[in-house]
Amino acid sequence: MRCLWGLVAAALVMTGCGGPHPAPVHPGPLSGQAIEVLAVWSDEEQAAFERVLDVFERRTGASVTYVSGGDEVPTVLATRLAGGSPPDVAGIAQPALVRTLARAGSLVPLDPGTESVIDAQFAPVWKELGTVDGRLYGFVFKAANKSTIWYDAGQLGPGFVPPRTWDGFVETLRKLSDTGDTPLSVGGADGWTLTDWFENVYLQTAGGAMYDRLARHEIPWTDPSVRTALQTLGRVFRPEYLPGGISSALQTEFTESVVDVFGEDPQAAIVFEADFVAGVIAESTSATVGVDARVFPFPRIGPVSSVVSGGDTLVALTDEPGTRALMQFLAGSEAASIWAAQGGFVSPNREVELGQYPDDSTRQIAEELVGAENLRFDMSDLMPSAFGATRGDGFWRAMQDHLADPAQIDRVLAELEAEATAAYERGDS
């Protein structure tokens, strides 16, 4: 095994300077070996990832099969593990699930070679996200910068200057509303968009240490810091700022909220969400990212630049030479650069050159993600999924309740605390 792994590592190093389209290597050091990867990506994302895998196959001679589990990756993975046939590699969006699987013995710690790549090319915060009880089990391959505000440059005009502060953002919305516009599109039917709003505001109003404590339920959801964040958020969730008012926002899904800004019949000029908004723009509108569709950082409330991130953590479930070789390849900047050049992708790997990204907006998003002074992972994905990531329940529903009636803040806080307590006591993942 060691000899074969040495040959694989040598093959990866020797061809590492060949760019994203190396000449085929046949037979390679992994000829005849089959590797299976399970992750969420489908359609255009699947095609982009499979191009990354093509490079690895040509270089090593291995055969890699990709399986898209969509939103059901946790269920598919649980079924495969129960049946004794796990994939070799899986992409998992929830760090809480990574912890659960690692502690259950279902994951294989990353080998020293892969860990050295992560040490060299990722900021320490990203390594911490993949570490469970002192051992490194995974790394975020495809990240999301969830601290981005998108706007239609045509609607707002050439003189528009993106606001840098929360007060400036509120003032921008007020001025646009005063002219008769409804400036802000909110996809409230998808509760996760509202939790993303809250997480950005909470990180800036309460700070990183309190964010971590709330995510671990070391402080209650009735804490004054939560009230402060909800009250701050209420300054932009005003009916006169939203097309159709609050009731319409609660019926608007995420994709529709983007189309309502960049589609043929715009209802608003501004929408908040992560860099994956670019994919919706490309698929559902005629707008061009970086030209019509532009972006600015989530307005500052606190003293430092803060970014809430999400992403898919790649983990190994088998201890085979092919698995180890693929994990090391995917951890490196070359693999990330291959997808970056195709668009619809942001990497936390700080050695991916900004020039690899296809437009100015994506380059800006990537630069803010890598350079953030205060970065935290999506709180919903850090918490038990029964509370943090269940459609129509828990955190998602409570945020919808708050949007529907901000005057009922005491009831919402009590609801959040009761459901969080139950989920953590059950030990849900």
Account of the protein in words:
The protein is of the alpha/beta class and 429 residues long. It has 2 domains: 2-145 and 311-374, D-Maltodextrin-Binding Protein, domain 2 (3-Layer(aba) Sandwich); 148-307 and 379-426, 3-Layer(aba) Sandwich (D-Maltodextrin-Binding Protein, domain 2), CATH 3.40.190. The protein has helices at 2-14, 43-60, 73-82, 95-103, 112-121, 124-129, 153-156, 166-178, 191-206, 208-215, 224-233, 245-250, 254-262, 277-284, 321-331, 333-340, 360-371, 379-382, 385-388, 394-404, 409-426; strands spanning 34-39, 63-68, 89-92, 131-132, 135-136, 138-145, 148-152, 184-185, 270-272, 293-297, 306-316, 374-377. β1 (34-39), α2 (43-60) and β2 form a beta-alpha-beta unit. α20 (394-404) packs antiparallel against α21. Residues 1-7 and 13-25 have low confidence and may be disordered.
Annotation keywords:
single chain, 429 residues, alpha/beta, D-Maltodextrin-Binding Protein, domain 2, six-stranded mixed beta sheet, disordered N terminus, SBP
Average pLDDT, all residues: 92
Q: Assign the structural class, choosing from mainly alpha, mainly beta, alpha/beta, alpha+beta, or little secondary structure.
A: alpha/beta
The proportion of strand residues reads 5-15%
Number of domains: 2
Shape: globular
Identify the CATH homologous superfamily of the largest domain: Periplasmic binding protein-like II
Task: Classify the helix fraction into a percent range.
Answer: 40-55%
Q: Give the low-pLDDT segments.
A: 1-7, 13-25
CATH topology of the largest domain: D-Maltodextrin-Binding Protein, domain 2
Number of helices: 21
- Intertermini distance: 34 Å
What CATH architecture label of the largest domain applies? 3-Layer(aba) Sandwich
Rg, Cα atoms, Å: 22 Å
Number of strands: 12
Oligomer kind: single chain
Main β-sheet description: 6 strands, mixed
Can you tell me the CATH class of the largest domain? Answer: Alpha Beta
